[in-house]
Design a protein that fits this description.
Blueprint: E1 4-5, E2 12-13, H1 15-21, H2 28-42, E3 47-48, H3 56-60, E4 68-72, H4 98-111, H5 122-126, E5 129-133, E6 138-139, H6 151-165, E7 170-174, H7 175-181, E8 191-195, H8 212-222
Parallel strand pairs: 4-5, 4-7, 7-8
Antiparallel strand pairs: 1-2, 3-6
C-alpha cells in the first residue's frame, strides 16, 4: 500500500497511521486548521517546519514500531531548527537548544551516553521512539503561535490510539503541559515516566536525576522488547 494523499494540502502519511487517522482529516476541527494554515501562508507568514515535515514524527516511526513516546509542546520557531520531531534539530544546528543540551546532560549521567555532538534525533525515531509534538506547526519567530488551532485534538487522537491499541509502551512526559496531555494514559497497560521539563527554567527541579532513558530500557527489556540505543552516530 502506497502513501495516500490527505486533505491537508499535499501531505502524505504513513499507511500504518493512516489506517487509524484517516477519518480525522474530514473532521471540522481539521478543516478549520487547514483553513487557518492557508490563511497564515496567504498573509506571508513563514510556517515551520516545511509542510513535508509536519507529520515527520509519524512517518519516521510507523505505528507497529512505536516503543517509546516523548511528548513535546510545539516546534522550534527558529529557522533551520525544526524538522517535525519533538526536541530534535537538524544535523548542522549548533549550539544546540538549551532543553536539548539538558537532555544530553541527563543521558550522560543516566547511561554514560554522550550525544553532545548532535541534536539530530532521527536515529531514535527509527528505533521506535515517537518524537511527537502536541502542536505540529509554528510561525517562525513566534513560539506557541499555532496553539489551540486544532493540532492538539489531532495529537490527542494519536495518543489515544497508542493507548488503546498497543501494550507496554513507555510514555515520557516532561513538564506540566505534557503530563496534562497524557493524563488519560492507562498506567496498568503502559509505563508513564513524569518529571520536570528539561528547559533551563525547570530542569533543576526534578528533570536532572530522573533517569528516564535507563528506566525506559529496563521496562522494555522486562517485556521482551528490544531496548533503545540512545547513542547517536
Amino acid at each position: 500500500m502506497s502513501n495516500q494523499e490527505l486533505t491537508l494540502g499535499h501531505i502524505k502519511l504513513d499507511p500504518s497511521w493512516l489506517h487509524y487517522l484517516q477519518t480525522e482529516f474530514d473532521q471540522p476541527y481539521m478543516l478549520q486548521l487547514k483553513q487557518f494554515l492557508a490563511e497564515e501562508k496567504q498573509k506571508g507568514k513563514t510556517i515551520l517546519p516545511k509542510p513535508s515535515e509536519w507529520f515527520n514524527a509519524l512517518n519516521s516511526t510507523p505505528f507497529e514500531q512505536v516503543k517509546v513516546v516523548i511528548l513535546g509542546q510545539d516546534p522550534y520557531p527558529t529557522f533551520g531548527h525544526a524538522h517535525g520531531l519533538s526536541f530534535s534539530v537538524l544535523p548542522d544546528v549548533f549550539p544546540l537548544p538549551k532543553s536539548l543540551q539538558n537532555i544530553n546532560k541527563e543521558l550522560s549521567s543516566d547511561l554514560n551516553v554522550h550525544n553532545q555532538h548532535t541534536g539530530y534525533l532521527l536515529p531514535w525515531a527509527q528505533q521506535g521512539v515517537l518524537l511527537l509534538n502536541a502542536v505540529l506547526t509554528v510561525e517562525a519567530g513566534h513560539t506557541h503561535a499555532h496553539q489551540n488551532k486544532g493540532w492538539e485534538k489531532f495529537t490527542d487522537r494519536v495518543i489515544q490510539i497508542l493507548n488503546q491499541h498497543k501494550q507496554h509502551l513507555v510514555f515520557i512526559l516532561w513538564g506540566a503541559y505534557a503530563q496534562k496531555k497524557g493524563a488519560f494514559i492507562d498506567r496498568q497497560r503502559h509505563l508513564v515516566l513524569q518529571s520536570a521539563h528539561p528547559s533551563p527554567l525547570s530542569a533543576h527541579r526534578g528533570f536532572f536525576g530522573s533517569r528516564p532513558f535507563s528506566q525506559a530500557n529496563h521496562y522494555l527489556q522486562q517485556h521482551q522488547i528490544r531496548p533503545i540505543n540512545w547513542a547517536l552516530p
